[in-house]
Amino acid sequence: MPEERRFGAFGHNRGVCGRAQYLKVPEIIEAYGPARVGDVDEAAPADEAFPNSVVPGLVLSNGERVVSSFAWAFFADGTGHNARLETAPDRPAWRDAFASARLILPLARFVEGRAWFADSGGGPLAVAGLYRLDGPGAGRSHPARPPGPGLPGVRRDAAAAGPPAAPARRATMLTRPADGAVAPFHERMPVILPADLIGPWLAGEAVPAARLLHESPALRVEPLTRPGPPPPDQLTLL
Hints:
It is built from four helices and eleven strands; from the N terminus they run βαββββαβββββααβ. By secondary structure, it is mainly β. 39% of the residues are buried.
């Protein structure tokens, strides 16, 4: 993985994991490939992402891993950038996506409270997430819809595609109770998938809830020390 990118520290982060550094497309393919590049614009994702930012995500489409673009907010009003793992399988807002529209949000590191957290060995963090289509018919997931323009699984023709459109999909990040590294800074953290659960998660298979709730890699902590403007306010449906 390339050398870690560093950024100025912001003030107190509102809500659960509302600020993160996502992997770039080549890093995603290196970590989780082979994977096809869908409608994601490799130059579009910002170095730091906040709720409603355009971010890359990894999905399974027709048996193939595809990197596509997502708005990091599950609902059209910009809310829902995270959801509790403990209630997602049953709550109406999330249950359809939990059953059949899952993705990985590939992070380099994330903020909770007043600290950055990254894998202690420098590896990527495969965060469990859910997605849905935006636009007409939004409000439910469409995992079985065949690939088409702007959907996962489509290879963009760089010569004919033109400027990238707004993402056709929205994503939320699942959260769990904080582990020992994160707990001094915040009570919750993203669900980070162990390597052997990445495939089953993307395929919509049953995965052990206890492992998702309690397993996490060793994390390196980098406290935020320099003041700066706070991230945007974000209402969160937990």
